């Protein structure tokens, strides 16, 4: 039923879109203004706060020209805070409704703003067309679909009964035929079996006779088994290249690569603790309370970002959080064995190692995989070559202790950390 | 003659083994080197921790999470609470009353700059001019093809020369210690709260650096 209605809906949508196009062609001049307005609307990131069709951080702008005069709009865009300060009644009302006051865009000229309003008008027309035709058509379609479905079900039922009846008749007829021709059937079966047996046998004989072919097949099997065995055995306990499927298709290529968000923004733990830490979802929401990628999903929120909203129970309409939160169950990629201790902050802060040194070109990975083998040899090789970075406080005590030793001063175990709890109680 | 045959067989045999090994080596190099499976594990009882990792599910808690929130109202030792609420009044009051507890030193300022570049510059711009990477035209080319990425609303510039106003009325270059600290702690407009990412001390270092940017 949903299929049928969605097909009808799509049909109606395409018809309405073509109607809008027709409308746009007839009013070419207006359309040009609107196109310029659309570009300006996007260039100034208006859509980040003003979602068309619903209220967001800012109000829904559809039908703006009906609500407000042009002069007011220009004044507001140029200096919203100034209007509030001046006690403009509409500005004060808006301030009461929306806690955040709009960013001023003083650089937009009056004609620019007129173009943007033209764009909003065009969008309003589009939205209304959509509402009138597909919504109505959709409603009609769904009730049509309901009756169609009932008729279809009844028809299906009738056909099913007819089929059962027919099959019953056929079975009975066939049983009668078999009973009548028992002898002939047995003879035919015997003949067929003989032929089949000899065919397989013939093929096996021919195959075995062709020594080269046998040799080739055996070689191939040995080669493939060898390769599979090699890969499996070599990678026992080594997860290099491990790329598990994650619950959300989060792309590091977009976030770390194109957007150039620092690794530390989300993985701050790498600078402060043993673990690099997976960011809690509130860090995602710092940007994704605004970014929905709806440009690419027909005005709807991207399904992957919607998963985030479900996890933190974020209501896009009211822009509030609920209490029904669910953790996002990311799959851990880098699994060190329990007997190996690794500390991120020691490497990142003290030694100054870049994230990419171990994690590879993260900024190019659409889907993250384990870049380094994380074997003991890999660790040891790096530790053999890397010079100690003395440019921080971490080694101050060590150097001081060595100076004391050189001078022949008295030094107790306690002075070199012998009283630290972890020396005995680890 | 028999010896000859053996030599021949030996040669053939060795040749075959070589071919098989070469074939295995070539086949084993197939693929892009990534896999969905973690493979076999040697002695799992040594590899897998007995204790729960923070990100593991845990049946011992009601909500099945290992990482639990600290009890409400508890503070880490040495933590100073920010008592101003997330309201316009709280913001105004904080702006008047709260002053940075940190001394203006080169080291603090340097750390403030590093923190600003990490946590703020992506929107506010490396120079605090409101032109961070997220506010610019960006394109990504990945498995779903080339497409434009959504732009983040550009924040107003901190520079005195730009003369931009905050949406809460103050000229950006005049924002006080408390106002900036309040905004980092709670967020405002499109900006989210950065309290979980920056400790109070780190926030004060960022504030210190923002004051430097305001002079521009």
Strand line-up across the major sheet of chain B = 1-2
- Number of discrete domains of chain A: 3
Looking at this structure, what is the CATH superfamily of the domain at 94-140 and 147-214 in chain B? Cytochrome c-like domain
CATH class category name of the domain at 94-140 and 147-214 in chain B: Mainly Alpha
Distance between the termini of chain B: 97 Å
Report what the structure shows.
The complex is a heterodimer of chains A (426) and B (216). Chain A has 426 residues and is mostly helical. Chain A folds into three domains: 2-147, Cytochrome Bc1 Complex, Chain D, domain 2, CATH 1.10.760.10; 182-234; 252-403, no CATH class. Helices cover 62% and strands 1% of the residues of chain A. In chain A, strands 1-2 form a two-stranded antiparallel sheet. Chain B is mainly alpha-helical and 216 residues long. The radius of gyration of chain B is 30 Å and the shape is elongated. The mean pLDDT of chain B is 87.
Strand and helix map with partners:
The complex is a heterodimer of chains A (426) and B (216).
Chain A: H1 2-26, H2 28-43, H3 64-67, H4 70-78, H5 80-85, H6 89-97, H7 110-180, H8 182-209, H9 211-234, H10 252-258, H11 263-266, H12 269-272, H13 281-288, H14 303-312, E1 314-315, E2 320-321, H15 344-350, H16 355-359, H17 376-385, H18 396-407, H19 421-424
Antiparallel strand pairs in A: 1-2
Chain B: H1 2-28, H2 44-47, H3 88-97, H4 106-119, H5 121-124, E1 139-142, E2 145-148, H6 177-186, H7 200-214
Antiparallel strand pairs in B: 1-2
């Amino acid at each position: 039923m949903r299929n049928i209605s969605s097909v009808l809906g799509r049909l109606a949508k395409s018809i309405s879109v073509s109607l809008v196009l027709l409308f746009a062609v007839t009013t070419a001049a207006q359309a040009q203004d609107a196109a310029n307005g659309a570009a300006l609307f996007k260039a100034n990131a208006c859509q980040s706060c003003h979602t068309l069709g619903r209220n967001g951080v800012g109000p829904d702008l559809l039908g703006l020209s009906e609500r407000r005069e042009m002069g007011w709009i220009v004044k507001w865009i140029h200096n919203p805070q100034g209007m509030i300060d001046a006690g403009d009644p509409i500005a004060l009302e808006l301030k009461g409704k929306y806690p955040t006051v709009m960013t001023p865009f003083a650089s937009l000229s009056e004609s620019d703003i007129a173009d943007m309003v033209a764009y909003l008008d065009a969008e309003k027309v589009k939205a209304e067309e959509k509402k009138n035709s597909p919504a109505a058509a959709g409603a009609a379609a769904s009730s049509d679909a309901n009756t169609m479905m009932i008729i279809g079900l009844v028809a299906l039922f009738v056909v099913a009964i007819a089929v059962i009846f027919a099959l019953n008749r056929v079975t009975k007829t066939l049983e009668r035929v078999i009973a009548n021709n028992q002898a002939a059937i047995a003879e035919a079966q015997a003949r067929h079996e003989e032929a089949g047996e000899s065919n397989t046998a013939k093929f096996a004989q021919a195959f075995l006779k062709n020594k080269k072919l046998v040799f080739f097949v055996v070689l191939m099997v040995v080669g493939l088994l060898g390769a599979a065995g090699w890969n499996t055995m070599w990678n026992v306990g080594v997860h290099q290249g491990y790329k598990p499927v994650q619950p959300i298709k989060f792309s590091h290529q977009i976030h770390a690569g194109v957007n150039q968000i620092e690794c530390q923004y989300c993985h701050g733990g790498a600078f402060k603790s043993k673990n690099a830490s997976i960011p809690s979802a509130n860090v995602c929401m710092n940007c994704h309370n605004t970014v929905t990628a709806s440009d690419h999903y027909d005005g709807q929120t991207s399904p992957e970002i919607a998963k985030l909203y479900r996890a933190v129970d974020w209501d896009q309409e009211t822009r509030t959080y609920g209490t029904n939160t669910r953790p996002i169950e990311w799959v851990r990629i880098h699994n060190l064995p329990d007997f190996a201790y690794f500390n991120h902050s020691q490497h990142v802060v003290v030694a100054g190692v870049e994230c990419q040194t171990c994690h590879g070109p993260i900024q190019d990975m659409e889907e993250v995989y384990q870049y380094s083998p994380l074997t003991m040899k890999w660790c040891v090789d790096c530790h053999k070559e890397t010079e100690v970075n003395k440019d921080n406080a971490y080694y101050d005590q060590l150097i001081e202790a060595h100076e004391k030793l050189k001078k022949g001063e008295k030094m107790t175990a306690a002075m070199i950390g012998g009283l630290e709890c972890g020396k005995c109680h680890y | 003659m028999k010896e000859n045959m053996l030599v021949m067989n030996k040669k053939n045999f060795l040749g075959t083994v070589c071919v098989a090994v070469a074939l295995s080596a070539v086949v084993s190099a197939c693929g892009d080197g990534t896999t969905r499976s973690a493979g076999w594990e040697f002695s799992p009882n040594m590899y897998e921790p007995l204790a729960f990792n923070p990100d593991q599910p845990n049946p011992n808690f009601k909500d099945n999470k290992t990482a639990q929130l600290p009890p409400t109202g508890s503070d880490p030792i040495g933590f100073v609470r920010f008592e101003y609420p997330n309201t316009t009044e709280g913001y105004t009051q904080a702006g008047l009353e709260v002053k940075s507890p940190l001394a203006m030193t080169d080291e603090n300022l340097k750390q403030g700059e590093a923190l600003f570049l990490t946590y703020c510059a992506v929107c506010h711009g490396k120079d605090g001019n409101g032109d961070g990477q997220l506010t610019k035209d960006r394109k990504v080319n990945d498995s779903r093809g080339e497409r434009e990425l959504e732009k983040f609303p550009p924040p107003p510039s901190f520079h005195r020369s730009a003369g931009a106003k905050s949406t809460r009325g103050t000229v950006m270059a005049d924002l006080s210690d408390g106002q900036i600290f309040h905004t980092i702690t709670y967020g405002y407009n499109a900006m989210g709260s950065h309290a979980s990412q920056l400790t109070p001390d780190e926030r004060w270092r960022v504030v210190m650096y923002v004051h430097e940017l305001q002079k521009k």
